Amino acid sequence: MNELASLIAATLSAGTPLAIAGLGLLINERAGILNLGAEGMMLIAAFAGFAFAFHSGSDWVGFAAGAGAGALVAACFGWLVIWLNTNQYATGLAVSLFGGGFSAFVGVDYVGKKLSERTDYSVPGLRDVPFLGPALFRQHPLVYLTVAGALAIAWFLYRTRPGLVLRAIGEAPESAHALGYPVRRIRLLAVVAGGALCGLAGAYFSVVYAPLWVEGMVAGRGWIALALTVFATWRPARVLLGAYLFGGVTMLQLHLQGMGVDVANQFMSMLPYVATIVVLVLISRNPAWIRLNMPASLGKPFFPSL
Amino acid sequence: MTSRSTIKHLALAAAVGAASLVACSKQEEPKKPEAPAAAAPAPKPEPLKVAFVYVGPVGDAGWTFAHDLGRKYVEGKFGDRIKTTFVEKVPEGPDAERVIRDLVAQGNKVIFATSFGFGDAMEKVAKDHPDVYFEHATGYKTGPNLRVYEGRFYEDAYLAGIIAGEMTKTNIIGFVGSFPIPEVLRNINAFTLGAQSVNPKVKTKVVWVSNWFDPPKETEAAQSLINQGADVLLQNTDSTAVLQAAEKNGKYAFGWDSDMSAFAPKAHLGSCRLNWGLYYEKAINDVLNKTWKTETTKWGVKEGLPEFVSIAAFVPDTTKKKVEEAREGMKTGTVAVFKGPLVDNTGKEVLAKGVVADDKWNGAINFYVKGVDGKVPSGK
Q1: How many Å apart are CA B137 and CA B68, to the nearest integer?
Q2: What pLDDT digit, counting tens, does each position of B125-151 carry?
Q3: ipTM score of the complex?
Q4: Helices (H), B79-140
Q5: pLDDT tens per residue, range A237-281
Q6: B19 within some domain
Q7: Which of B107, B135, B151 is a domain's end point?
Q8: What pLDDT, in 10s, does the model give residues A119-156?
Q9: Do B177 and B318 have their domain in common?
Q10: Residue B314 lies in a domain
Q11: Same domain membership, residue B105 and residue B178
Q12: What is the pLDDT of residues B58-86, one digit of tens each?
């Protein structure tokens, strides 16, 4: 029972940054922009978050800095792909590689620095409830905020007018343009919001999850977040579930190893990606599913004059 | 020079330039003007140019940091008789060869390559430059001007094990492993044997992260070990993440590769580090005195290469004394980490009674000793 509780706790903690970044990318993609630069944005944000948390002594300043850094990089990316119409795939990859190098470069002096004493954020009163306490109520507040955030984003996309406009732009930018919506500006807003969320996820890594900064520390989780949006067929609640599933698989394989169960951990590590491919195959086979889920203009440039 | 070969040279120069620009940041240490003129022979010779190839960034802790301490140590020792250069963050693979060739072209006469994966590159370049001395850490390929050196790190792991065995309350200790290669399995086994030498009830749990360096995953691995009852951890990975995870959970852990006591004042029990400077001093002396010959150097606690340092003040004196005794025993030869009778964790005898393991046996370890949970991951 104890093992299960700690596995659940670890899964929530591991899934949270994936969920945050995945939700950010989902907002991007719902507006029709594919940002492959997630990994780079997260790295820059992880650095910025760590540096600010280090100097201020506050996690929350670190989060704000991470989100800000992510938004800034995303704004540059958005300007390139939305106004200059550079290829989204190539630009995204460039941002990803740039972010890795840039964060390593500016972060050299912060390697090996240590953040101040960590705060214990467990929920008073509930933290000692048997099973549920250790499983659910000893997490960083960001873990709970992520769940609330996923619901808020789902509500925004499907229950509000701006959400509808955002989705409309992702489906048919020309029509939205014809109706008089500022497609490019709204897309930029979506990209910046997505970047801020990716940045928040990056800062979570360096401030909460493994409180240290070293170059390359996001170690591919930006790509997992990208896979997650496909896996979730662009639905916020499914992004959340998918993130816990991906996080859970990682933690499960580590737990199984510790218990002495003989599983190839490489096999377990590849499972989330296999699942993503399977989902891709399933939704691609069925035209109706694609039409229902994948934003129709995803990755395509938009020329307002045409 | 024909135009064709000019083009070829240009292309090569461009490739080398680009490689060193992109793949690594190269830094030359400024020569210290105040350096004392060492007792050099009458006609003052050109300084011996020595280059170090690092796999990671130097940073403030870890494997490459430890090698760079060694570089600084010999700089201090030899003063202006040598001039050192290093290239950090060199990826293992084809880029390494270009970097090493570039260093040779710049007139370096001694090249230290500090990661296992530089072996092939070192071998190739060594063949082309018989007048340059090549030194490869943790490798196994040698040649007329190429030799290998390493530290018996498992002796440090054994000393850490003694403290772990005494400090654990749950009798479960944990190990975060990188890859199941003999070097790492040796450390896991030595850690376990060290703990068992003071506390026969100890069990070791191992989690592999399939990486030398992935702080979030190292954190996850440490967390999962802690969740399963381990209260003292050691790792063979290169970041401070495991130590910091232990600190966060109120458990204990050790520093690895360099002194990591500053990263987790409450969790840090001691640090296993390698004092590479000792070997670098010997190697450079060999070159300066023209006594360099091909050999395989494996230095242990006896020679002072692996050092177990910064034992926490809160570790009881009786425990510290046990560590000291084992350390002395290693120096005098009365304590050997791997000696029979030794059985693996399936009950099979791997060393007969009275037999002390030799380097061949050490290099072929592919099992866990009794007391380690689980099975060594295999490709099957």
Answers
A1: 13
A2: 999 999 999 999 988 889 999 999 999
A3: 0.75
A4: 94-105, 119-128
A5: 999 999 998 888 888 888 888 777 777 767 777 777 787 788 778
A6: no
A7: B151
A8: 778 788 787 888 888 888 888 899 999 999 999 999 99
A9: yes
A10: yes
A11: no
A12: 877 788 899 999 999 999 999 999 999 99
Do B55 and B72 lie in one domain? The reply is yes
Domain coverage including residue B106: 46-151
In a domain, B348, yes or no: yes
Contact (Cβ atoms closer than 8 angstroms) between residue A21 and residue A180 = no
What are the chain A neighbours of B368 within 8 Å (beta carbons)? none
**Residue in B57, B219, B373 closest to A209 by CB:** B219
Extended beta strands in chain B, E state? 26-28, 48-53, 82-87, 110-113, 133-137, 146-151, 172-177, 203-208, 232-235, 252-257, 268-274, 296-299, 306-309, 342-343, 349-351
Q: Which residues, at least 6 apart from B74, have a Cβ–Cβ distance to it below 8 Å?
A: B50, B82, B84, B277, B280, B281, B284
Assess if residue B115 is contained within a domain: yes
Chain A residues whose CB is inside 8 A of the B375 CB are 260, 262
Give which of B64, B209, B212, B223 to mutate to test A binding, by max A Cβ within 10 Å. Answer: B223
Are B256 and B322 within one domain? yes
Q: Looking at the partner chain, which of A205, A219, A251 has a beta carbon nearest the beta carbon of B224?
A: A251
Tell me the HSE value of B233 on the side-chain side, using a 13 A CA sphere. Answer: 39
A270 in contact with chain B, both atoms CB, cutoff 8 A: no
CA distance B26 to B158: 37
B22, B65, B214, B224: best to mutate for the A interface, most A CBs within 10 A: B224
Distance, in Å, from the CA atom of A125 to the CA atom of A147, rounded to the nearest integer, reads 21
Sign of the torsion formed by the C-alpha atoms of B296, B300, B303 and B309? positive
Task: Count the Cβ atoms, other than its own, within 10 Å of residue A179.
Answer: 11
Chain B residues contacting A, CB < 8 Å? 57, 59-61, 174, 205-211, 213-221, 223-225, 227-228, 230, 239-241, 244-245, 248, 262-263, 373-375, 377
* Beta-carbon separation of B216 and A261 below 8 A: no
Residues of B in contact with A108 (CB under 8 A): 57, 59
Count of residues making up chain A: 306
Q: Which residues of A touch B245 (CB under 8 A)?
A: 210
Closest CA to A2 of A122, A130, A126: A130
CA terminus-to-terminus distance, chain B: 55
Cα separation, B231 vs B262, in Å, equals: 20
Q: Per the structure block, which two tokens stand in for B141?
A: 């390929």
Instruction: Identify the band that residue B124 occupies on the pLDDT scale cut at 50, 70 and 90.
Output: very high
* Contacts of A216 by beta carbon, 8 Å cutoff, 6+ apart: A43, A100, A104, B213
The domain that contains B349 carries what CATH number?
Answer: 3.40.50.2300
B210 and A266 within 8 Å at the Cβ level: the answer is: yes
Of A114, A210, A255, the CB nearest to B216: A210
H/E stretch holding A41 reads helix A38-56
- Is the confidence at residue B108, as pLDDT, over 50? yes
Residues B113 and B185 in one domain: no
CB contacts, 8 Å: A209 with chain B: 216, 219
- All structural domains of chain A, each given as residue ranges with its CATH number in brackets, are 2-293 (1.10.3470)
**Residue ending a domain, choose from B117, B151, B185:** B151
Count of domains forming chain B: 2
Say yes or no: B329 and B191 in one domain.
Answer: yes
Do residues B121 and B187 both lie within one domain?
no
Residues B57 and B174 in one domain: no
